[in-house]
Amino acid sequence: MENLMGVGYQLTLSCIKDIASNVDGVYVDYDNNRFAVIVPLQDNKRIQKVFGVFDENFEKVEFHSIVCDKEQADLVLLLNNQKKFNYSKFIIDSDKVMISASVMVDYATPDILEEVIIEVAENADIWEKRFTEQDIY
Phi-psi bin for 5: left (phi > 0), alpha (psi -120 to 50), beta? Predict the structure, then answer.
């Protein structure tokens, strides 16, 4: 596996760690291809967990954050509102609604990575509050 992790992977991972620090967040490493960034939100009273996964060839990194259980969401409302996002989209995985975005490692600049992580965190928090009226995830 080590030979698949090229310079792009190392630079991307380094940028993600720097972004976590720059936004006063926390980077948590799970293994070679999974991590999390704990992002404090603008009011500094709440945080949002953004999970990251590199694909099997370490060419793409996907970010996601849980919004709510599928049965709590108005799916038509989600579809009608996702056009407002720059990088992310709603997905349903394992009966959870999530905000998700992916970036190709070769094009992952620090600015884009930070924008993606912040967008995923902020939108997940907004929609979580809208559907659950709580801060669960």
Answer: beta
